[in-house]
Amino acid sequence: MLKSELRRDYLKKRLDLEDDQIEEFTRQIKSHLETLSLPEVKFLLSYYPLVSRKEFNVAVCEQVILSRFPLAKIAWPKTDPDVVGMEAHLLEEQGLFAKNKYDILEPIGNAIVAPALIDLVFVPLLAFDNNGFRVGYGKGYYDRYLIRCRKDIVRIGFSFFAAVEPVSDINEFDVPLDYCITPSRLYEF
Question: Domains along the chain?
Answer without folding.
Answer: 3-188 (3.40.50.10420)
